[in-house]
Amino acid sequence: MPTQVYAQLSIDESNARMGFSGEHAGMKFEGIFKKWSATLTLPPAENASIEASFSVNSAHTGDSTYDETLPEEDWFFVEKFPNANFTSTSIELKNNGYLVTGTLTLRNIENEVNFVLEKLNKGYKADFTIDRLAFDIGKESDPEAEWVSREIVISLTID
C-alpha cells in the first residue's frame, strides 16, 4: 500500500502573500501584511494544524492616510495589540483542498473563522471574510460601517 504524502509548509512574506481588502467611502482598497509567518501541517497527517502570526503594524496599503490610521487605537491599536494570530481547530481533506476551521485573534478578541484552503497547480489559496466590528476594529469612528465596509476579506496566496 503506498504511503500518503502530506504537506508541511513554513511560509512567510518571502514566499507567500497575506492581504486584506474592503471598501472605504464606496471605493475598494487593499493591502498586505509585510511581516507574518505560518506553519501548515496538512492532512492526512494526524497532527494536521495551521498556526499563523502576523504583525498588524506591518499592514500596508500604499495610501498614506490608511497606513497612518490603521495603527491607531480605534483600528488595530498596535501599541497594545502588536500581533494577531490564527490557530486551526480542525482541517478536513476536501476534493480540491481543505476545509479549515479555527480561531482568529485580533485586538485580543477571539472569533471562529472557516475557509477553504484550495490546492492549486502550484501552491494554495484561501480567502475568508471577517466582520471588523466583531474585533472592535474602527468601532468608535465608524460603528455603523457607513464609511468602511463591515466585511473585510483576508486572503492568503502560497506560491
From TrEMBL:
SUPFAM superfamilies: YceI-like. Pfam families: YceI. It comes from the Bacteria. Gene3D superfamilies: Lipid/polyisoprenoid-binding, YceI-like. Residues 8-159 form the Lipid/polyisoprenoid-binding YceI-like domain. This is YceI family protein. It comes from Agaribacter flavus.
